Amino acid sequence: MAQTATFTQSLSTQSVLRTLGMPFRALWTLMVLLAEANPRMKALERLSRTSDEALAEQGKTRESEIRRIMGLHA
Fold this sequence. Notes:
2 domains; 4 helices
């Protein structure tokens, strides 16, 4: 019976911790969704799907495109 009581208490503690963590998980999910919706992120995803050969045909390099997308001019 002592094991059953400990097991029940353990489940109760896990449940409380899971409930307390829910707002943080929701906030993290929201931040990821916002980052993925960013036009820069979408442009980087398109760039990652583009081959180096296709970029070379256009006279571009992956590094120059990353700089253009991110707004880096150095």
